[in-house]
Amino acid sequence: MPEPDLEAAESAARAFLDALGVDLDRPGLDRTPLRMAKAYAELFRPRPFTMTTFPNDENYDEMVVARDIPFTSVCEHHLLPFSGHATVGYLPGERILGLSKLARVVELFARRPQVQERMTQQVARWLDEHLSPKGVGVVLTAEHTCMTIRGVQAQGTTTTTSALLGRVRQDARTRAEFLAIAGR
Length: 184
Ligand SMILES: Nc1nc2c(ncn2[C@@H]2O[C@H](COP(=O)(O)OP(=O)(O)OP(=O)(O)O)[C@@H](O)[C@H]2O)c(=O)[nH]1
Ligand SMILES: [Zn+2]
Fold this sequence. Notes:
alpha+beta, five-stranded mixed β-sheet, 7 helices, elongated, binds guanosine-5'-triphosphate, binds zinc ion, nucleotide-binding, GTP_CycHdrlase_I, zinc
């Protein structure tokens, strides 16, 4: 991923706010275009991480589930934040994953202009490709500020999406177990 050009982003933010009639000469706002550039750069940049796996020596064959991983993403239509919680689980095959990596993968796909459905599938597919587990389950629940603070202003609405792969999708018992843990 290329380094963000903060100088160009700052002058674009300045022009954008100016076009909207925001008085940038007012004390307190003089550094706002740069802050805005940095804030979006942060929202579009996941922290790098290493993918750490361990052999599944104990042949652990039940689901591993991390619940309520908080995340903030940005809707690709309005560039307004949507945030909520992810529950991510997998049924191990030959390897198990360092637990923190489940939260890191959520961040990897949150920090970009997104739609919630795609993000849900990307997290599930990434785990499937990098870990070759017997199954994967991902449930996201989020509040989209583009539909709560503007537009339809449906305050308090949350949206839930899910992606189930392998045995978590096909095997009724595993699927029910995962969805029960995910609170659905
Ligand atoms: N499916 C999906 N839609 C999203 C997501 N985030 C935002 N949206 C929707 O994207 C749509 C964009 O619709 P448009 O009609 O082009 O935009 P708009 O005129 O600002 O629409 P309103 O929000 O209804 O005022 C809206 O319905 C948003 O609620 C998401 O993660 N998934
Ligand atoms: Zn939106």
